[in-house]
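User: what does the whole thing look like in 3D?
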Amino acid sequence: GENVEQHPSTLSVQEGDSAVIKCTYSDSASNYFPWYKQELGKGPQLIIDIRSNVGEKKDQRIAVTLNKTAKHFSLHITETQPEDSAVYFCAASRKGGGFKTIFGAGTRLFVKA
Amino acid sequence: DTAVSQTPKYLVTQMGNDKSIKCEQNLGHDTMYWYKQDSKKFLKIMFSYNNKELIINETVPNRFSPKSPDKAHLNLHINSLELGDSAVYFCASSQADLGVAFFGQGTRLTVV
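Assistant: Here's the predicted 3D structure for the full assembly of 225 residues, as structure tokens:
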């Protein structure tokens, strides 16, 4: 069945360093790849997304890359800050009556001040 | 203004009871979802409704019954609650052809 693998499960970085989270997906029909940030006690919040016709997208300190051939996509956070600490989820989605979205297992990011 | 709101935020109940969680979105989206997040933070889709019509039902027990009275509302009713139903349930909405989902704050259900 469809699957999204996410690594690492936990990531600890020093403030100011970069953080990279990687995901692979199995459904070749996936064409939309959102990333969500979930803070304690809150719902996941979309932070950036990329569609299959684009290889890279950047928004300030956050960037995503997509390799459709290898079915890999990654999230890059530069100049990390303590407020970046949260759980991050990647997801792979395809249109199938409202977009069926499969989430990765999440990465708990700790940014140490 | 809350985009996707669900109530209650916390729900503690005994095994065997029946309970409902309500969700409303004011974004004008045509698709709404219910997700379950377990204790390990794993997010799994349960149901999806597009224009009040059920389009995704991911092998969820029959004890779970979603109801969408209109495009802005998707409620979740759970019969005969079991210990394993304890989790955080998230409602979300999106515009079907865009895919971007907005999540509610979650309902933490604890079955004792």
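In plain terms: Chain B touches chain A at residues 4, 30-31, 33, 40-45, 48-50, 55-56, 90, 92, 94, 96-97, 99-106 (CB under 8 Å). Chain B has a mean pLDDT of 91.
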